[in-house]
Design a protein that fits this description.
disordered C terminus, 2 strands, mainly alpha, 24 helices, two-stranded antiparallel ribbon, 4 domains
């Protein structure tokens, strides 16, 4: 028996104390040091993960004070006991002659290589017919017979247990996800993945999955480390069985976590976030879901060969990061790089690689690629950087304009649905479907890629001709869409609000291509000024109509702030500066529309900015810009009064984070901001 001092070190054992001799019996000793013959230097604490309850409370309080989500299990909970067992287990793996001496080191990764993935026609093995099987065969990762992947540090075992622990909120997660698929026509992944929700709930009820027993953690990690094999005979209604139940994988959990976190901010599952603290609770829940879905990504980067579930997870966490961070965050740009990299690795950009897949999965991959492609152009435009996914290196076809329910239908029903398509893949039934909007935005984004490429070239007559050609082809493509998909100001109102909003966003995407083209042409000559003012006026009017429609939404409020900033703001700048120049010079502006309507629309837009200034975290920016626009309108309506803003007030804009803003008496600083972009697929 060993007595201990308060610092936990052994003082002396019972026999040595009786004999009154110095004790050298340093007990206990862990099995690892015994095998390595280092017992003289070992002291193994019997409960290495225990901590004082006051210390635990202090850590939790510190996390709350710093706004960090506390997803760690509480002291004394069943999951913590399982984690301690997991640590001891992974420290001395069974059936192993030599223990893994680095098993407690999170920086010591498993000794294995993931498959290479897609190899293109210029790869080093392209001359061989079996190039894929040569270096990236799934057989490189044989099925695991052990409880955990070999060499996996106990840190990642504990992290996986924390991920499973968040399933205690699965009732909220399931409700949010179901409501999202019920009301939103922009859910890229087919609704057939909803079959996974009851399967996961059943597993939670039967096995108490959220308590993180060692067996359940081992099962999920073992499944996640395997190649996701999808037989060509797999039916859409059976797809979920490949990653739920006894085949449960971390990727699908992270996918649902990310959707729940993103959609909770927009008002879904109202009964789960009641009272005045609802908005704060929603933000905390979103950050918690972001942290846990990001933890899933980190584990999968170590263990998981890239698969379709990985693409879904990357896409959803990218959208969620826009809420947790902001539009211009570098983290968002980095996540876009991860998404594009995994798309290329899986070969989603090469449609010729998908011939042996079930039709539902082939169509799902096309939709995933199209969604990632348009999002890439959106972020590239917003940040003014080169796009990461280029059509020059892709041959992915447009997804077919068919209903999602078709993928769970029988073969005869599927053939009948394919016969209802025209030669371009559009439905001849005149019905609104998710694939219709995906096809629209994908085609319009191909022109955005061309605009981004030319924007980096030096202005010249040749670039001007290229821009005019892009504008012409973009108009022709828009006019080739089925009539019911072409939004205009007199569009019929007897359609669901969500469909109406999707049509408006596609229309804004189309208009913004023209806006960018004419703004580039104006920099080379004033001949394009009239067209720039016309398209700016149309964009602003459409944004205001978008804001009116949001009031009809009961279940969901769309992200009107993003629409205002990314579309309304640039067009309002152009119009306000033109009116200001007219008031100062007395020269008429080259605008064929009604000047009074223009001023009225700008005034309404200012009221939206003022409202957002009172309710948004970026209230300083909205407050400053609303005042600047208001002063311009005052100057236009009373041209004899010169209205300027004092310098110190403009200097305060540096506090908002725009270091490049200099002192100015008008809207010149807005040219530096240049908030132009394309709305992300937040909800619609």
């Amino acid at each position: 028996m060993v007595s201990r001092r308060r610092n936990g070190k052994p003082a002396s054992c019972e026999p040595c104390r009786k004999d009154k001799v110095r004790c050298d019996h340093r007990l206990p000793v862990c099995s690892r040091c015994q095998k390595r013959r280092l017992t003289a230097h070992c002291f193994y604490h019997p409960a290495p993960l225990t901590r004082n309850s006051k210390q635990t409370q202090g850590v939790s309080r510190s996390r709350r004070e710093h706004g960090r989500p506390n997803i760690l299990p509480e002291e004394g909970s069943p999951i913590l006991r399982s984690l301690r067992a997991a640590t001891e287990y992974t420290s001395t793996p069974p059936d192993s002659e030599e223990p893994d001496v680095h098993s407690d080191d999170p920086f010591c990764l498993p000794d294995r290589s993931l498959p290479t993935g897609y190899l293109g026609p210029t790869s080093f093995v392209a001359a061989l017919e079996e190039d894929q099987e040569l270096v990236s065969s799934p057989s490189d990762l044989p099925p695991q017979d052990r409880a955990f992947p070999p060499g996996l540090p106990s840190y990642w075992v504990r992290k996986t247990a924390e991920i499973l622990y968040c399933l205690k909120d699965f009732s909220t997660i399931q409700q949010v996800v179901r409501e999202y698929y019920r009301i939103s026509p922009a859910a890229i992944v087919l609704p057939l993945v909803l079959h996974a929700l009851p399967a996961i709930q059943t597993m939670i009820d039967e096995t108490q999955l959220h308590k993180g027993s060692l067996d359940q953690v081992a099962l999920v990690l073992r499944n996640t480390s395997q190649v996701l094999q999808i037989p060509s005979t797999t039916k859409g209604s059976e797809f979920y069985e490949l990653f739920t139940g006894p085949n449960l994988r971390l990727e699908i959990l992270g996918f649902f976590y990310a959707i729940a976190g993103r959609m909770s901010v927009f008002g879904l599952a109202y009964d789960k976030f009641p009272g005045r603290g609802g908005p704060t609770t929603r933000q905390q829940f979103a950050r918690k879901m972001f942290a846990v879905s990001d933890a899933v990504l980190q584990v999968c980067k170590i263990l998981t060969p890239v698969n379709d579930l990985t693409i879904w997870l990357l896409y959803e966490t990218l959208l969620l990061s826009n809420i947790v961070h902001n539009d211009s965050s570098s983290a968002r740009w980095h996540r876009l790089g991860d998404l594009s990299t995994h798309i290329f690795e899986l070969g989603l950009h090469r449609d010729s690689q998908q011939n042996d897949l079930p039709i539902f999965l082939r169509e799902l991959r096309r939709r995933s690629f199209a969604a990632a492609y348009q999002l890439d152009k959106s972020i590239a435009t917003f940040l003014g950087r080169p796009p990461r996914i280029s059509m020059r290196h892709s041959d992915c076809r447009l997804p077919l304009d068919i209903s999602e329910s078709t993928f769970e239908a029988s073969e005869p029903e599927l053939e009948l649905a394919l016969q209802c398509l025209d030669n371009r893949g559009w439905s001849t039934q005149g019905v609104f479907q998710l694939s219709s909007f995906i096809r629209q935005r994908f085609l319009l984004s191909t022109f955005r890629e061309e605009i981004l490429e030319i924007s980096s070239e030096r202005p010249s007559p040749e670039t001007a001709d290229k821009l005019r050609d892009i504008s012409l082809r973009c108009h022709q493509t828009w006019n080739s869409f089925p009539k019911y998909l072409r939004y205009h100001s007199d569009y019929e109102d007897n359609i669901p609000v969500t469909i109406h909003l999707m049509l408006m966003i596609s229309y804004l995407t189309y208009l913004y291509n023209d806006f960018l083209i004419h703004r580039l042409l104006v920099s080379q000559g004033q001949e394009a000024q009239t067209a720039l003012l016309d398209v700016s006026s149309t964009i602003l009017a459409t944004v205001l109509a978008f804001g009116t429609l949001r009031e009809d939404m009961v279940d969901l409020r769309p992200d009107f702030k993003a629409t205002s900033l990314l579309y309304g703001f640039p067009s309002a700048i152009v119009l306000a500066k033109a009116l200001q120049n007219q008031a100062r010079t007395g020269k008429p502006i080259p605008y064929e529309g009604s000047r009074s309507v223009l001023i009225r629309n700008l005034s309404v837009f200012i009221s939206h900015l003022e409202l957002m200034a009172r309710s948004d975290t970026s209230h300083e920016l909205f407050d400053r810009t609303s005042k600047l626009f208001s002063n311009i309108i005052d100057e236009v309506l009373e041209p004899r009064v010169a209205v300027t803003l004092p310098g110190p007030e403009l200097d305060s804009l540096a506090d908002i984070g725009f270091d490049m803003i200099a002192e100015s008496e008008d809207l010149n600083f807005l040219d530096i901001l240049d908030l132009g972009g394309s709305i992300d697929q937040m909800i619609f």
